[in-house]
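Working notes for the structural subgroup meeting. M.R. asked for a predicted model of this chain before we commit to crystallization trials. I am recording the input and output together here so anyone reviewing the notebook later can reproduce the run.

Input as submitted:
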Amino acid sequence: MSKMFDVGEYIIYGTNGVCQVSSVGKLAISNDDKLYYTLVPIYSRASTVYTPVDNERVVMRRLISKEEAQKLVENISSVETISIDDEKKREECYKQALRTCECTEWVKLIRTSYLRIQDRRNSGKKTINSDEKYLKAAEDYLYGELAIALDIDKDKVRKYIVEKVTEGMEEKY
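Returned structure, recorded in token form:
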């Protein structure tokens, strides 16, 4: 049996991002004795997800704690970037980073894409769509989780990160 989540708990559920467990039990529309989570995606409240408690195909995990979130943000500038020159291989690496549903992988993707976009702009080149697409997706997942963990609005997470990272830079110099 996999880990059980409690009603009211926030979890990451695959590409749905942050969801709240609204109930655990048997489905009225099903004849089996299987237990299901009823999940409400926090950032798309119009939908509901029903998934077996023992679902092994989709990543389901608890959100990181406030302390873990603060530590992640403090260490963001030291997270390595993805150094793959081949566009197709890098895009595959981006997809894989999103599928892991792990904050550090999202940060790695964000840093890589952001730095590549800045570098291309500074060189007078057009940005590459895959960088922008995956940057937005990773930011969406990461900011969603950090917003709940840090108890701040999702649209204020980016500003919070920038402040913490620049604050850390000032302390070093």
